[in-house]
Design goal:
The chain is of the alpha+beta class and 339 residues long. The chain has a five-stranded mixed sheet. A hairpin with a 4-residue loop joins strand 2 and strand 3.
Length: 339
Amino acid sequence: MQHFVVVGILVILTTVLTYLGLDVAGLAKHQHPVSASLQSISIDQLWNWEMMVISFLFSLIIVPMLYSLIVFRQKKGELEDGEHMEGNATLEVVWTVVPIFLVVIFAYLGGKSLGDVRRVDPQAVTIFVKAQQFTWTFEYPEYGIISSELHIPVNKQVVLKMTSADVIHSFWVPEFRIKQDVVPGRYTEYRVTPILVGDYKVRCAELCGTSHSYMENAVIVDTQEDYDTWIAEQVEIAKLASLTPEGQGQLLVARNGCTGCHSLNGTRLTGPTWLNIYGREEEMNDGSKIVIDDAYIAESILDPNAHIVATYASPSQMPAFVFTDEEIANIIAYLKTLK
């Protein structure tokens, strides 16, 4: 009986210490990264309970095992066999019934958490999301805005209606705790109610190609006032852009997610940067040199594998786009402004 008491006390102490260690590491009650959505509250609570049970089960296995290895080891001079023991019906009933109760309890808690995550607000803000290798594009249908940044108002549910232009992606903002696959040919929904103003990032959580690790865009949770201001600014920008060829070209670039592979600031991505691209001489992967002019840009849009810049992957990962001659001319006009 003494051994059972000692082991019981050690199991309790080890459970507490294990849980506190997980908590300090940001894996229990105080999680990292910070919780920034209403849906994350129930998810974090469920995770916290799971960490408590895991700490106990870990201790329940490790402590008796180590205690037995130390206390009941064969001592010097002991040659006889240990005490012969056969099954324990009571113990077998306990370790069958208790796990069943735990499974039922966590099934209920999991269902409750799922219900909290999927609860529908009829006044939710609707935003369309398009994923493609290797960027995200956000469209605000109520205002006719297309952006590479996701701006959402704090304390208001947002429903993202998401689809993919190529392969399966997965929308993941760690601070929101929710992850949702984005599938070609269909729309999936992602509902979130942000509760903490700040700047975050959406990452693709599904391996989607060679530049998968670079597929991240800014997510900004604004106050309602800042959100309304941003919407007004974007509406005005879109209105002015539609008046010029280069402005229409910029809108086409945003709508088709071109900056996911072509940076505007000189940074090397999957494709060549567009900064100072027009008129530049580039060496191709066949050793030839070509000046980047109207003809080359049009050819590259319609047939990306015709001529590939040296040091970039061949065949090109860029899909062949279908644009009218006017749309191609507008894109070229926009590229000419990137100095």
